[in-house]
Amino acid sequence: MKKGRPYIIYSILGIIAACFIYFILWVIFKDKMPLHEYAFEIANNYDSYAEKAIIIIPLVVFVLIFITLMKPSAGKRFLRLQSSLPTSKIHSVAKGLVEIEGTLIMKNPLFSPVKNEVCIGYYYTIENIDRDSDGKETYRTIHRETQCNAFQVKDDTGIIEVEAEGIELILLGETNISSHGGKRYQETLLKDGQKMLLVGYADSKNGVSFIRKDDYYKILGITSSSGITVWNKYQPLLKSFMFTCSVILLIIIYILIQ
């Protein structure tokens, strides 16, 4: 599914466009342009600078991809923590960061913004639809929000309350999509009876346990039990693939340098 282009891509395209426009103006006005001496040097030694560009450009692309992949987010923290946490039974949950799995129980319903469905909570986005000359559509997010009321999770040992403030919906596909007026509206819903896996901080009030957002890891995340099983199965393969690609790219850069 197509998403809005990241701002980093727009920044790179903007830099490339600015360089191209400067080059055109320099060809026309030559020494009247600022930085004329540098442009003249590059033009007279084009082959030498082209060889350097062949090495530098892949390296810059690799660094940008690495920074993007390593940039922290709630989703990445959730996936990292859930892979290391054991799944606790609700009856014996201990104070601290925990992972639980069970069926959602709705307490106070919400109504979703796209289809007006009854739900526990939702993640809602509005995207502008842009079309190029070939009619190909791209999407740019202009609004996003998460709303969720307190709910309960039930397993075969008990029921626990979840204070939903700050909750993140992770790896959940869109429930409903609607497009009109040059915009696309999407919502992902949490609904009564869904089987989910949740990571958060187990706390207690007046001797009653509940789960809230963890203050240290800044995480209260929820995902489907079936979806996270698939993710955990194929995540090692994805890491191996990314590592192999990184090594191959570094080898290619080394060969080009030599």
Question: Helical content, roughly?
Answer: 25-40%
Number of helices: 5
Sketch the topology as an H/E string, one letter per element: HHHHEEEEEEEEEEEEEEH
Total strands:
14
Compute the average pLDDT: 82
The radius of gyration is 25 Å
List segments where confidence is low: pLDDT < 50 over at least 5 consecutive residues. Answer: 1-5
The secondary structure category is alpha+beta
**Based on CA inertia axes, which overall geometry fits?**
elongated
Largest sheet: 5 strands, mixed, barrel
Strand content: 25-35%
Task: Give the strand order, joined by hyphens, for the main sheet.
Answer: 2-7-8-13-12
What oligomeric state is this? single chain
Distance between the termini: 41 Å
What can be said about this structure in brief?
By secondary structure, the protein is of the alpha+beta class.
Could you give the topology of this structure?
Layout: H1 7-29, H2 36-44, H3 46-70, H4 74-84, E1 87-88, E2 96-106, E3 110-111, E4 118-119, E5 121-131, E6 137-148, E7 151-155, E8 158-162, E9 168-169, E10 176-180, E11 183-190, E12 195-205, E13 208-212, E14 221-224, H5 225-257
Parallel strand pairs: 1-2, 8-13, 9-14
Antiparallel strand pairs: 2-7, 2-12, 3-4, 5-6, 5-11, 7-8, 10-11, 12-13, 12-14
Report what the structure shows.
The chain has 258 residues and is α+β, with helices and mostly antiparallel strands. It is built from 5 helices and 14 strands. A 5-stranded mixed barrel has the order 2-7-8-13-12. Helix 3 runs antiparallel to helix 5 (225-257). Residues 1-5 have low confidence and may be disordered.
